[in-house]
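A note from the maintainers: we've had questions about how concatenated examples are separated. There is no special marker in the raw files; a new sequence line simply starts the next protein. For clarity in this README we add a label.
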Amino acid sequence: MADPFPNDPEGATVALVLAGGRGSRLDPLTAARSKPAIPLAGTYRLIDVVLSNLVHSGLRDVWIAEQYRPFTLNQHLAGGRPWDLDGTRHGLRILPPAQGRAEEGFASGNGHALAQQVPLLTLFGADTVVVLSADHLYQMDLRPVLAGHRESGAELTMVTTVTDEDPSRFGVVQVDDDGAVTGYDYKPEDPEGDLVATEIFVFSVAALQEVIDRLVAEQEDVPDPSEDVDEDGDPVASSLGDYGETIIPAFVARGRVREHRLEGYWRDIGTLDAFHRAHREILDGTGLRLDAPGWPVLTNPVAAPPARIERTARIAGSLVSPGAHVAGEVEDSVIGPGVVVSEGARVRNSILFGEATVPAGAVLDTVIADVGATIPEGETIGSAERAEDIVVLVPDLTDPDADDETTGVGQAAD
């Protein structure tokens, strides 16, 4: 069979975005859409951040590994066209689960998902792969990271940052004075320091294959061989679980891992509280800058007329998206496309995704409202007494188990 990937030096580096997880900590916002497809700051999606960083960094081969509810995400991606990634030989490529050998099909953890792509990376001719997640906010030029990786001869370069959150939520990193990684603890109960991995990893593809092969080979004595071996009785990569528990520590043990420090803003938004906090930071100017000169966040825009602001409206410290109609009061909030804030309604410290009406007399305080959520007239919902008291409103569908991924809405469990 002819080589489907003829030798091409432009394909030496591939960016692999792991976008297949369930995102259960953001439920119910992920009840009917994948986490990367969640709306961000009114007119964006979470995946726009990582794609914008990759495109601005000059990376042209961007692969997205999907699994959970990909339809809405694929609608938004539109084959990569909004990011000028719709090339014939290079550009955006979707990697859905594929049934074939025992190690293929649905991934059981992101370590397994990464292992599934290594043979394709090798066939493509990639010598370096940048592995990223789609639920972090940051703006970073990856070209110095890649240059440092090659110059140092490292097998793995991890981007690190000093966090102002609980380090035990992340992979905690120890480094020496020369930037070599000397230790890595994944979500430790008693973390040594506040330097953490940002889940931006630059791997040598050859070393990644070696590490995965060795880790899989060590799983020969699995408790239930019927689940962890292929048809020939060989162990498969489903045993890898989360790469933070298996693959990354194995690389650190080999002694050729370096860090690249990210000094700017970085926020993990894998929880509702972190998601809400990140929006407050966008609004007050301390968070992700959507219109950074030379580094804007790019998206697949939805055609909509300009926002309509009535004379009765009072708006302060907020983002109002195209297609919105505001006649009431909005403070420190994000108003998505198609949202109507009626005269006599008040919205404070809230995020309204889109296509919802806040009727007269209603008060929303510290609320996240999904697309199409029903908001009762004359009721006060939410409270500003504690920042963690976030109320999430989702559409009230007739069938509590139903969802509509084509619109990105769903019924939350009680």
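[label: protein 2]
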Amino acid sequence: MHAWPASEVPALPGKGRDLRIHDTATGGLVTLDPGPVARIYVCGITPYDATHMGHAATYNAFDLVQRVWLDTKRQVHYVQNVTDVDDPLLERANRDGKDWVELAEGETALFREDMTALRLLPPQHYIGAVEAIPGIVPLVERLRDMGAAYELEGDVYFSVESDAHFGEVSGLDRAAMKLLSAERGGDPERPGKKDPLDPMLWMAAREGEPSWDGASLGRGRPGWHIECVAIALDHLGMGFDVQGGGSDLAFPHHEMGASHAQVLTGEHPFAKAYVHAGMVALDGAKMSKSKGNLVFVSKLRRDGTDPAAIRLSLLAHHYRADWEWTDDVLRDAVERLGRWRAAVSRPDGPSADALVEEIREALANDLDAPTALAAVDRWAARQDADGGTDEGAPGVVSRAVDALLGVAL
């Protein structure tokens, strides 16, 4: 599966700062020191109803992670998956009378278009669950052979008790885990499971549903969590720098994935930091496919909204915050974009050297984009009020906003 084209990232003078970011597992800020190549895995879409603003906010956050690392002169090895076969996708295809493959391909193509328009940097490896199945099957077999998995009526489940570190990612108690498992694709009430929290690794073929050869597992399809584990281990290995996604993935998805990988390899941790973006709401409720309260990037673009303004509307909120999409949010972003473009269109202006360092410091401090935006606002206000004599300043600001915030002025 191919990703989307990369926009050019301007080189800035000097060097950025190491990233301090909130780690869900420890509950505090950690300073990441990845070495010359930073490794990041971000969980991708299940391709139906893409790309809503909740998606856009999440992937914008991890685009900032990449940009901070690039500014420190590191290379970035970024991997993202596409869950192109799963119950919600099949249910949507059945509801709409569509072929599930056609639905997945169409929504994935639209997602690529939106990511390109928003100028989000693409992953080096963009892997679908279906294409990953040949690598998933041996992992499930190995877990079973290790005694860390068991069969139940043809399905194969992972035993959470096999991982001594289970629960360390989310930090939740069992009662909370059980509730979230039921809400987020698990089946804690299924009779015969060793533990209600045990997640499915391999689902035996169901009539009318797609299935693949699972060797000794029989025909079926993979569970959600093992998909990402297989892809991450194949392309990044253990102990990569950041596992990312929305806050609703901390449990069960990232918790279970970490346990799968840790049992398979005997190593800990799966990722050095687990980083989660907040949820975007509309009309007082979390924006979600099930509720149908979605604002789509593609519709905003079709209606004539500049993608740079959409991106600024995301950057105006701290990535970990839960916030609500409103017309005012977009209007403020459109006005800000206009002010910034007017400011950099002049032949000279106030010195921008300090501004570049302010943006760098804000982003290095847990991706504090709102503080970075406020710094650019102040420079634009000085430009509007007094101007300046630095002929290179508008160009420096334009390149810095592009390189660090991904906004083309």
